[in-house]
Each structure stands twice: as structure tokens, then as C-alpha cells.
Amino acid sequence: MINFELDAQGIATLSWDMPGRSQNVINGESCAALFAAIERAVSDPAVKGILMTSAKADFIAGGDLEWLQSADAAPELYARTTALHKALRHLETCGKPVAMALPGTTLGGGLEVALCGHYRVAADKPSARFGLPEVTLGLLPGGGGTQRLPRLIGVQNALPLLLEGKRLKAADALKLGILNAVVAAGTEVQAARDWLLAQTGPVQQPWDTKGYKIPGGAISSPAVQQLIMAANAMLRAKTYGNYPAPEHILSCVYEGLITDLDTGLKTEARYFVHAVLSPQAKNMIRSLFFGMNEANKLAARPAGVDKQRYSRVGILGAGMMGAGIAYVTAKAGITAVLLDTSLEAAERGKDYSRKLLEKQAARGQITPEKAAALLERIVPTTDYAALDGAEMVIEAVFEDRTIKADVTRKSEAVLAPDAIFASNTSTLPITGLAEASARPANFIGLHFFSPVDKMPLVEVIMGKGTSDATLARSLDYIAAVGMTPIVVNDARGFYTSRVFSTYVMEGLQMLKEGVRPALIENAGLQAGMPVGPLALTDEVSAELLVKIEKQTAADLGDAYRPRPGLEVAQRIVALGRIGKKAGQGFYEYPEGGKKSLWQGLAELFPPAAEQPDVDVLVQRLIAVQAVETVRCMEEGVLTTARDVDIGAILGWGFPPFRGGTIGHIHSTGIAAFIGQCEALAQQFGERFQPPALLKTMVEEGRTFYSR
Ligand code: NAD
């Protein structure tokens, strides 16, 4: 676990090497080994200096989240946390010099251990990252990070690292003083030894020396007071109080730095326990860490299908979506044949990548050679013969059944019999589109999100005839381009578009009821959504909502029921205020200026004399999405809660602290959620009626997640 070696010069090397894992993590076993190794090194008089390092490519990746989540009781967690604090404190105050040789990435608990060394030297490795990213999972550093980092580099420098969880490259960590040296990879242990051997007397941490002052000013100094106040205000404005972890971090820094380190560590331990046990952290860890890891490891991939390697992929339509798909494909080292009706259009699609690469090159993120090679792999064409040899074709032509059918036939005439044909349609059911295909088993939906180079989600849609092999091989493509898949079954609007639209429609319905527009928008933000429903309607365009609704009405015939909110969309479209792209919608978009709500809304939708409580609006905006998700599950569109929640968070920005639409029901409690929905249904309509699935789950004592 932690190898202990004492050499002739009195240097004890403690090398982390957790068996059966590719990375070292902080958990019960490694802590026990760490405590024993520290005790031995400190108490053995033959040990003159202590060198801690790792036998793996990285130092320590951070805390073991399984271990962290296994504790449900505050006293146990507090005891674990303070035991680690005590051992690390013992190490840094023992008087013997302690050096940390960091061969690679050193994050979270790993960096906290490293901060207990009197000297930190890292290998110069481009992939290595240093930081305290706990906040991104609703946690805070619990190994002394909130106390040692600001004492080392000052409050001003530490706050962005603690509050945003930034991961630094070695050079930047060196500049900030988190590292003492960066040396050629493979020489870091020697550099640490050299430093240890050069020490002649007892060594102390800066914060343990007499007359120590926090760099950049003490907490009580006016400059730092102002900084903390500003950070508090910014946090509130950004999170609406939905994320307790960053608030706890600020409290740790503020309360902890007024006192000595030992008292500060106790403060940190208390806030840490609070954060670990919070529903927000549990939700974020479940979806953003465990769920995402499973999805990225292709948990949904049917077994027994050989891994498909991709060398050539055809992309039909070089518009907004096709251009983005070509970029991510070429970036993954795959030739992207980009086909459109004219060569100019195809070239324009390639220009999208050119512009992205120019920006990256200007920022030093890519070398000119790599950028040129990537561009070379995008082959613009109008000729279907260029698709010959492609393992897959993804169509992103106009959203029109006839055109999609035409390009399907033309492609299949050229493609090998086992090649996959994927459609990036946003609304048209896959089974219907597959009717144009001579091989429906090879036909699948791959729904990308815009902009493709920034949005990592792909919603994979299984048509009725889609084979498991096609699913498996399509997932291999998604893994190859480094994106995250969720798998859903075919239905109108699939999953993401269908549930996302309930959010905007609910907002529009509120407007019809006489709720003030600003209150609706604020309720959306307070709910944790990235954008208010009216602004979001403008982004996607009310015209598109009306168009989709019209298509749905035509397809469903007598079964069609107009959705709440539709009338509002129709009225705003009738005025020509179709959305952001037209420069006017629910908002005004002055050129070069900030958007503001359109004053005319008050006349069109007169506000009611009495305005509802914002909490009720928040509840409606969230519940409407969660209820629709359960309906998708009931209809078999969705099968795993994991995919549901990842899709919600990555697809349309459903608040991560709620864990996703199902995560929200899970952490509310199914029975409590049913109660909420029944009350909402009574007041606002049938759409809130809790689906039978939920009631059955309560009766049978089932839950969506085990934890
Ligand atoms: P777009 O209008 O920007 O691009 C469509 C491209 O297809 C155009 O360049 C057009 O010249 C080309 N095209 C049309 N007919 C063709 C044909 N017969 N052969 C070859 N090329 C042809 O559209 P877009 O926004 O990129 O959307 C493309 C598809 O992706 C649509 O099905 C859309 O519903 C879907 N989609 C769009 C988004 C989005 O946010 N825009 C998101 C997910 C899915």
C-alpha cells in the first residue's frame, strides 16, 4: 500500500502504491497505511528526512468517493476526518524535513497530503494537474486544504482554486507557490532527496514559525475583508444559495484563518461532514461521478460484439450540426467526409473547424502541425462515392422526411452492407426514418447537441429494428470521439427534447396566468436552471415550438391535446417576435447591448393583481420536468435512471445539485414527490398528475437508486 524504505543516508521513502488500482486514492485502507508509515518515520531516530512519493504514474488522484459515501453518520465521518488531520499534522510538525516528489496529477486529498510536505517538487508532465476540485462534486477539501492553501499562497490566490475547483498545470502551480520546483519527469525523486540532504536543522511549515503572516494580508485586513464580501455576493448571485459547498468553503477560510491552524482544521472538519452528508453532494456524486463514469465506460453496450474501430465516417449536411460533428470526428483522428449539396456549402462546414482551430492556436492550445493535420482529415465533397469505405454515416441534413429518405438511399448504394447509418434528427421518430433504409438493423439515431464541440452528450435512439450490434458499434464511435452517451428508445421528441420543452412551456403558461415575466425568469434561475424559461424560448425560437406542436398535431390526429403554453407561443410568433435570431422575442436584443424583457409583454399578458409565491413557481418548473421524465420511463423510452439523470444535466442543464430529474425525485422521496404533484395537479392541471409507476414503486418499496 505504502512502501517504506530507509537508506544509508537516513532518508525514508514512503511510496504510495495501492494494489489492484491504477491510481492511489484516500480511503480507509490507505489512511491506515499512511498513519502507520508516518508514525514509523517520525519515531525512528535513524530517519533524518522523509520523502513521500508514488510508484504510479500520478501521485494521489483524491478521495475515494465510494468510501466517502459509505459513511452516513456524522460522528463516524468526523472521526475519520480528524484522524487524517492529526496524522498529517504529526508529519509536518515532527521537525524532520518532509519532501513530496509528485510524479503526476495531484488532486483533492492528494494535494492536501502534498501540502503537508515542507518541499514539493513535481515532474514536468503536460497531463499532470494540481488542484482542489472537491467543490465540483458538492464537497469541500477535508484534509486541511481550506486551511493550508490560503496560508501558503494567500486568500486572494486560494479562493478561485477552492471555490471553482480549478485544475492547474505544473507551471501555473509553481508560479502560485503551490509547488517549490518542477523538474524533468523521472528526476523528481532525486530532486526531493537532494533537498532533504541539504537540510541541516529542524524544519517547520511557514504557519508554524514565529511571526508568520498570511501572504497578501490577514483575514482582518480591510483588503481581505472586502475580498471575502465580494466573493460572498458573487457566490449568491451565481448559485442562488443552491450549492452549500462553496459557502462552507468561504466559512472555513473566514473562520479558520482568524485562528491557529489546529482550530482551523476543526472548523474545516465540521463543515466537511456537513457537505458530505448534504443531499446536494450525494446527488452530484451519484450523477456527475458514478453515473458519468459508467456511461463513459459504455455500461449500456451489449456484450459479445467486437469493438468497432473507425477510420472513415461520412457526415451528410455541412450546416451547424454537420460542421460540428465533422470537427469532433476529425479531432479523434478519423477521416470525416463532409457532404453537402454544393461544394461551397461543404467547404463552409469545414471552415467552422478552421475557425475553431485558429482560436485554439492563438491561445497556444494546439500546435500548427496538429491543427493542419486535423483539417486535412475533413474532406468536403458533393459526391456520394466519397463515402465508400466509411464504417458509419451520420446525416444532419434539413429536418425533412423526404430529404432524409433520399440521402439514406443514396448513401446505402455506396456503403458496405455492415456500415451504420445514423440520423441526427431532433424530432422525427427513428423507426419511421428507417423505412427508407434497406437495412433497418443498421439504422440508429445519434442526437447531438449544439454546439457539438462544446456539448459532450449524445442521445442514442434505438429504432424498432435497430440491432444490438449497431448499438454497440455506435457506442464505440461515441467513445472514440470522447463524448458521453445515453441510450433511449424511439418516441416523439425522444427524451431530452420532450422533457426540456415542458420547462419552457410551463414558463409560457405562467405568463398566460398573469405571472410577471421577471418573476418567471427569476423562478427559473432560483430553481437552478441555467436560463429562465422565456429567455430559453427566445434561444430556441417560439416559432420552432409552434412548428413542432403543429407537426405533433398532424401526426397524432384525434389523440392530440394542445399543451399549456402553446397559446402564448402562438401569440408572440403572430407578432413576428420569433426569438433571439430575429432580434426580438420575449426579450429585446439591442445591438451591442444587454437584452431586456420586452415592455410590451405587460399589455399582451396583463399581470395579475396578486403574484404567486416564487417557491411555488420553482416547484412547478422542476416538478413538470420530473413528472414528464417518469412518463418517459413508464412508456419504455428510458430504462435506466443513470441515463435519465446524465441526459438531463448534460443535455439541457437541469440543476446538478438536484442530481437530474430522477435524482430530484429520489432525493425528495417518491412518496413526498407524489404528494407535491397531487397538490400541483389540483391547482394547475392534469400535467402534474403523478404517473402510476411512482405509486407502484412506493407500494413495492422500490427506489430509483440504492443510495
Ligand atoms: P442547417 O440548416 O444548419 O444545416 C443543414 C445542412 O444540410 C445545410 O448545409 C444544407 O445545405 C444541407 N442539406 C440539405 N439537404 C441536403 C441534401 N439533400 N444533401 C446534403 N446536404 C443537404 O441545420 P442543422 O441545424 O445543422 O440541423 C441538421 C439536422 O440536425 C436537423 O435534422 C436538425 O433537426 C438536427 N439537429 C439540430 C440541432 C440544432 O440545435 N440545430 C440539434 C440537434 C439536432
Overall description:
Residues 493-589 form the 3-hydroxyacyl-CoA dehydrogenase C-terminal domain. InterPro entries: 3-OHacyl-CoA_DH_NAD-bd, 3HC_DH_C, 6-PGluconate_DH-like_C_sf, ClpP/crotonase-like_dom_sf, Enoyl-CoA_hydra/iso, FA_oxidation_alpha_subunit, NAD(P)-bd_dom_sf. One of its GO terms (molecular function) is isomerase activity. The longest helix is centred in the last third of the chain and has 21 residues, at 614-634. The protein has 29 helices and 19 strands. α12 (279-296) crosses α26 and α20 packs across α25. The protein has three domains: 2-277, Alpha-Beta Complex (2-enoyl-CoA Hydratase, Chain A, domain 1), CATH 3.90.226; 312-488, Rossmann fold (3-Layer(aba) Sandwich); 497-636 and 669-700, N-(1-d-carboxylethyl)-l-norvaline Dehydrogenase, domain 2 (Orthogonal Bundle), CATH 1.10.1040. Strands 12-11-10-13-14-15-16-17 form an eight-stranded mixed sheet, sandwiched between helices. Strands 1-2-3-4-6-9 form a six-stranded mixed sheet, with helices on both faces. It has a three-stranded mixed sheet with strand order 5-7-8. β15 (443-448) and β16 form a beta hairpin. The chain is α/β, with parallel strands linked by helices and 707 residues long. The structure holds nicotinamide-adenine-dinucleotide.
